[in-house]
Amino acid sequence: MIYDDQPPETLPVRGRSSLPSGRHRRPASADLPPDAPVLVLAVPGEDPDIAEEIASATRTARTELDVRVGLLGSTFTDVVRGLPEDRAAVVVPLITGPHARTYAQIQAGIDEAGVKTDRVVVTDPLGPHPLLAEALHVRLADAGLARADRIRQFSIGAATDAVIVAATGGAEAVREADMTAVLLAARLAVPVVAAAVDGPPTVAEAVTRLREAGAQRIAVAPYVIGPELDHEQLAKLAAEAGLGCGAPLGAHGSVVRLVNLRYEVAMEPFIGEVQE
């Protein structure tokens, strides 16, 4: 398997954002070549609706791009197996941070489909990224948990005095989410901490920590696209604990932009690079 931004001399390292020194990726053209790689959105969970919204927005922006949606553990293998034999594919997992189970499912689906792995690129997660902090801010504002100046993009007041960025993927995902939490804190001007909904450090631990620090009005910002988490259950648990809860990131424009950025970087090995 190939990972985007990976120097050929090194082992895959997820989360890398830098390119090998001395080289620059050629910016992807708005007009893709006829043999451009297919974009496959890998969806954890059984609900394809959000992924279809993201795919639809991408097709609207780039009508020449072949975009397909595959549910991991369900339709993903069939989607990969059905790819044109003369085309490469870029698989973008719809997750915001590291999640070992998701990547294992992607690899299993590729293996089961029997495609040549040198023609399939699996990208890093969508986060951390400032665009995701922006989307979290908007989702909190939509829920009445923060107020935002949408022109200058910073908080002008908040209905909460602390926020928990709730990720999936356990401790590793929380470490990656810390950067987004810092960016969100700068926007909201209130304490923001990251926690996991599926392992330590838990949301409950984060609540205790924030309340001990004096926070009274705490909100949960789901740091997920949507299909990978039962949001109704999370919102119910948050309400029972006296917490506010924003909506998942969903098909927010920032998510769509990041999907396209991941695709553009990952497809470059197939259409060439330019030297410095």
Using brief descriptors, characterize the structure shown:
38% helix, 8 helices, alpha/beta, four-stranded parallel sheet, 276 residues
Largest sheet: 4 strands, parallel
Bulk shape: elongated
Broad structural category: alpha/beta
What is the average of the pLDDT values? 84
Unreliable stretches: 1-29
Gyration radius (Cα, Å) is: 19 Å
Task: Tell me the number of helical segments per DSSP (H or I, 4 or more residues long).
Answer: 8
- Counting DSSP E segments of at least 2 residues, the number of strands comes to 12
The percent of residues in helical segments reads 25-40%
Order of helices and strands: EEHEHEHEHEEEHEHEHEHE
Major beta sheet, strand line-up:
3-2-4-5
Percent of residues in beta strands? 15-25%
N-C termini distance: 27 Å
Give your account of this protein's structure.
This protein has 276 residues and is α/β, with parallel strands linked by helices. Helix content is 38%, strand content 16%. The protein is built from eight helices and twelve strands. It has helices spanning 49-61, 76-81, 100-113, 130-142, 170-188, 203-212, 231-240, 253-271; strands at residues 23-24, 38-43, 67-71, 89-93, 120-122, 148-149, 154-155, 162-167, 192-196, 218-222, 244-245, 274-275. The strands form four sheets. Strands 3-2-4-5 form a four-stranded parallel β-sheet, with helices on both faces. Helix 1 (49-61) packs across helix 8, helix 4 crosses helix 5 and helix 4 (130-142) runs antiparallel to helix 8. The protein is elongated and about 60 Å long. The relative contact order is 0.18.
